[in-house]
Specification:
Helices cover about 40% and strands about 25% of the residues. It is an alpha+beta fold.
Length: about 80
């Protein structure tokens, strides 16, 4: 599976947890963070710096999904391997 497909699968998996993935341009705000999970006005968001390379975005999402109770959900085999 290509990296862009893996990224999309992770985004869709997070949607099942009612978490919206949002890529933002942090250069405008001069923020040095890479992103992360937050709650804004009762909406669960995972904000990612859109300037990051795709493999880094995937790593961030995988690290976050590992903290969620995903074991009993259907996860495509490629993601299942990444989440181990």
């Amino acid at each position: 599976m290509k990296q862009d497909q893996i990224y999309q699968e992770l985004v869709e998996l997070l949607e099942k947890f009612e978490v919206t993935v949002s890529e933002q341009n942090f250069k405008v705000t001069r923020t040095t963070t890479k992103g992360g999970f937050c709650i804004v006005k009762n909406e669960k968001l995972f904000i990612i710096n859109k300037e990051l390379k795709l493999n880094r975005k995937i790593d961030m999402l995988v690290d976050y999904v590992r903290t969620l109770p995903h074991e009993d959900m259907y996860v495509v085999p490629v993601l299942r391997e990444l989440l181990k």
